[in-house]
Amino acid sequence: MKLLNILHVEDNELISTITGEYLSMFEHKVTSCMDVTSGLKQLEENEFDVILLDLAMPTLTGYDFICELKNKPNILNKIHILTATDLTDEEKLELYDKGVKKILLKPLKAEELLEQIKN
Amino acid sequence: MSNKPKNILNKEQQKKDFLQIFSHELKTPLTPLMLSANMLKNEKVFGALNPKQRKAVKTINDCTDELNELIRNIFYANKIDSNEIKYTMKEIRIDEIMNNVFDSTKNNIQKNNITFENTTKDTGIIHGDPKIISQVLKYIINNALSFVTPNSGKIEINASIKEKQVIFYVRDNGIGISEDDKQNLFTRFYQQDTSLSRKHNGIGLSLSICHGLITGMNGDIWFESEIGKGSIFYFSLPKFEFHEIFNPAFIDI
Fold first, then answer.
1. Beta carbons of B250 and A93 less than 8 Å apart
2. Chain B residues with CB inside 8 Å of A102's CB?
3. What are the strands, taking DSSP E only, across B10-164?
4. Is ipTM beyond 0.85?
């Protein structure tokens, strides 16, 4: 199994900690950022295989994160949205149009999260 | 332009906003709960459990799934009310859809020592939304499952084409439905037994969701039932003409 370098942008500390802990158990390397600004900074400094991105966050949201990356399809296609927001079909299509790879809905099973980031 | 008075539109919007926030706030704590419960269950992650711990972890996992399903259903029912369900119509073989539903539900049913059969013989093709049809069948099967007795319970599923329509049914030998309850079965939040000591859980959403989904595809849903003998839930869908009624669209339940 390929070990992945994962960036997780999520403002909820509990979700961030548990997800990081779980993925690390499978030897993946997880960098957790609690806000969009520090997530974008990480992207300038490091390369990641997968970006897990929450949408609803204070100050700057996941949408702002995506907008900042609009000319970087190679980074956008690593984004796995992980959201508790009920998105309409139109909103989902819009996110796919912007280039994100997957939209995963919270809550999701641990095994499913692992499976989804591998593919 | 809607011809509803402005204050009604505001109320509808307020209800929608409330449900949106409510859903987000419920799912946020449910996310670490589900992840942690799954991690404990997978003994490769946090190590081996003793039998009592394993049982407790199973309870946490089962209840978390139930809670998640409940939240999902509340929002799904609301989507039906707001006409936000879109159907993706495809050509589907009815035996294939029945086999898929059978395969994906059989473990859950058979583990309770309940006889489960798919008696579909018809191989005809219909136009329909396979995801929605499967979803409705699963709701009805789950409903049957909660009313049959372990060890002697039987559930049968079938679909066949009759002239211009396809008729699906789910038959059980469960406790049956009383005459009084028959009137309200597809009513939102209806539970046959509302006493605090009621045996069956749920808030009476799944059958009303089925009703909304099937009537949304120009189909009918009905049942026959006798107390102590069991129930048969039927739904019918038109065999053809679907493509003329609906615009294909994307849906993700």
1. yes
2. none
3. 90-93, 115-118, 125-128, 154-162
4. yes
